[in-house]
Write a structure and sequence with these properties.
CATH topology of the largest domain in chain A: Rossmann fold
Number of helices of chain A: 13
Number of domains of chain B: 1
CATH class of chain B: Alpha Beta
Distance between the termini of chain A: 71 Å
Structural class of chain A: alpha/beta
Order of helices and strands of chain A: HHEHEHEHEHEEHHHEEHHEEEEHEH
CATH topology of chain B: Ubiquitin-like (UB roll)
Largest interface: A-B, 41 and 21 residues
Strand order of the largest sheet of chain B: 2-1-5-3-4
Radius of gyration of chain B: 12 Å
CATH superfamily of the largest domain in chain A: NAD(P)-binding Rossmann-like Domain
Number of strands of chain A: 13
Largest sheet of chain A: 8 strands, mixed
Strand content of chain A: 15-25%
Shape of chain A: globular
Number of strands of chain B: 5
Number of helices of chain B: 2
Structural class of chain B: alpha+beta
CATH architecture of chain B: Roll
Number of domains of chain A: 2
Largest sheet of chain B: 5 strands, mixed
Oligomer: heterodimer
Strand content of chain B: 25-35%
Shape of chain B: globular
Order of helices and strands of chain B: EHEHEEE
Helix content of chain B: 10-25%
CATH class of the largest domain in chain A: Alpha Beta
Radius of gyration of chain A: 22 Å
Chain lengths: 362, 76
């Protein structure tokens, strides 16, 4: 063995034997965003032998304030792939698998079965409950972390007979009721702190040292540095609920991806002048689209400004790639707005389409 | 008096991270009624209640002077 892991090995609590455990460990990280970046960076540096990274999203300029594995050169590149590129330079002795697709009810259990520990760095409740339930079904420990503005939570669930995420929060809050980082903002260093705490729990689980946050929820506030650790009780009822659903698990659909009939492609739009297009990108994003039937309401303020959208016309949300527009659709549906659709394509494609139509009319 | 701590987005409604509240009832559920009367915006939100350092359910008796209200976070 070379010198790379020397500072681990000379710790009597780790030693050669502990480092071997780390080198043989298989850890899957869900989401390579604010939390995923520091988690992956430290686990790769520590020599976790097999790392899995699942993220369907691409690197955006607004990510660079906190997602420290990325830079200008990786803008627009899938996060799992961009993260792997950076981590390969950091440590080429480990194996990294990338999954550039969303985590779904269909792929979760099969994927989790290939790893020892699952780390949740996702950014929405649906995925968090999916991760929890798939961990229960595949009997894997879950290292949970979540952030909100200046505050973070860390816990270890489903480990050594301990409680699960559902024992703490039995069911997800209504879609759109709790904003995420892209909607409300987050202090850049916060996911660094919380993600690093998650990486620490992962290493402690692998090594079997210290006191893991199993059955405990750590709450951290970056503004006053207060750390509170709360005890969470196990609820067998919550485990049974998940296990009872096991036979039907793979038939379930994430609501964010299941409304396929509410997603329209440009080809399917019969009359561009009769629909209202709603641009849910942030105000600075390019290309700018203007027109009498195009309004701009950033996703972050959509629920407050839903009154601005047309009642009677068909409404089509669009964004840069068709992901935020699906979230917008979910919010609109949640507020009982009818005739709402999400554009499959992004602003660039819509821009070209509208431009071509102008040409044809001229 | 009971000290009530608020976490996450709850503080956007309460406009404070903690406060002292007069309470003469028995259960957590009764205490929540007092809190929600003062901050009606909390009614529609999801949160768990911790008494001292333990997450408790609504039927638990209030026997501590520190209660924390804890919402789930989604961000990552």
């Amino acid at each position: 063995m070379n010198n790379r892991y020397n500072r681990h090995i000379i710790l009597s609590e780790i030693g050669e034997a502990g480092q071997n455990k780390i080198n043989n460990a298989r850890v899957l990280v869900i989401g390579a965003g604010g939390l995923g970046c520091p988690i992956l960076q430290y686990l790769a540096a520590a020599g976790v032998g097999t790392l899995g990274i699942i993220d369907f999203d691409v690197v955006d300029e607004t990510n660079l304030q906190r997602q420290i594995l990325y830079g200008k050169k990786t803008l627009g590149i899938n996060k799992a792939i961009a993260a792997k590129e950076r981590l390969r330079d950091l440590n080429d002795l480990i194996t990294i698998y990338t999954y550039s697709e969303p985590l779904t009810y269909q792929n979760a259990v099969t994927l989790f079965n290939q790893y020892d520990i699952i780390v949740d760095g996702s950014d929405n409740f649906e995925t968090r409950y999916l991760v929890n339930d798939a961990c229960i079904i595949s009997e894997k420990p879950l290292v949970y972390g979540a952030i909100f503005k200046f505050e973070g939570q860390v816990a270890v669930f489903n480990h050594n007979g301990g409680p699960s995420y559902r024992c703490l929060f039995p069911s997800p809050p209504p879609s759109g009721s709790v904003p995420n980082c892209s909607e409300i903002g987050v202090l850049g260093v916060l996911p660094g702190i919380i993600g690093t705490l998650q990486a620490n729990e992962v290493l402690k689980i692998i090594l079997g040292i210290g006191e893991q946050l199993s059955g405990k929820l750590l709450c951290f506030n970056a503004l006053d540095n207060q750390t509170t650790i709360l005890n969470v009780n196990k609820s067998m009822e919550q485990f049974e609920k998940v296990l009872n659903e096991k036979p039907r698990f793979e038939q379930k659909e994430l609501s964010i991806t299941c409304d396929t009939d509410m997603i329209v492609s440009l080809q399917e739009i019969t009359s561009f002048s009769e629909v209202q297009f709603i641009d849910v990108r942030e105000l600075h994003e390019e290309p700018k689209l203007t027109g009498t039937n195009i309004i701009q309401i950033p996703l972050s303020s959509l629920s407050d400004q839903l009154h601005k959208i047309s009642e009677n016309r068909q409404k089509i949300f669009f964004c840069q790639s068709g992901i935020r527009s699906k979230k917008a659709l979910a919010i609109a549906k949640n507020h009982h707005k009818s005739l709402c659709y999400s554009l499959k394509e992004g602003a660039n494609e819509l821009f070209l389409q509208l431009k071509n139509m102008q040409h044809e009319n001229a | 008096m009971i000290k009530v701590k608020y976490f996450g987005m709850l503080t956007e409604i309460t406009h404070c991270s903690e406060e002292q509240l007069a309470f003469s009832g028995t259960t957590v559920e009764e205490l929540l009624k007092v809190i929600v009367t003062k901050h009606p915006g909390l009614k529609s939100l999801n949160f768990q209640v911790a008494q001292n350092n333990d997450i408790v359910d609504l039927t638990a008796k209030v026997n501590a002077d520190l209660i924390a209200l804890l919402p789930p976070f989604a961000g990552g």
